[in-house]
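Handout, page 2. Input:
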Amino acid sequence: MFISEKQIEIRYAETDQMGVVYHANYVVWCEIGRTQLVKDLGFDYAGLEQSGYVSPVLDLSIQYKKAMRYGQTATVRTWIESHSRLRTTYGYEILHEDGSIAATAKSVHTLVHKETFRPVALRKVDEAWDQKYATEARIQD
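Output:
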């Protein structure tokens, strides 16, 4: 199982009045991590969109463990938790510089035609991408 890593320098604008990272920023960081994973595996999400497909989020859950603050560097670790015909679940860990876990998350995505929003199997769009996801998935479907 491949795990992608992406570092993010925490900006002041990402914090709230308590001086900690505002909770919604973790969603953005997960998306940054997912995009980096796709790139690290050798694929191009922008190219997928140009071909007429998008991958909307069906479900997202985040568990907050330990606050992050301005000036720190977060590391987003992303992997493929599971991959089936019509759904892919990504796993995430967001880490402090010392390796302690700030948050964990999972997001579930599907692939749809951009104009109709009808689901389509990734294997019908890009067989190599589908095979790579199936190989890299932590849980084999």
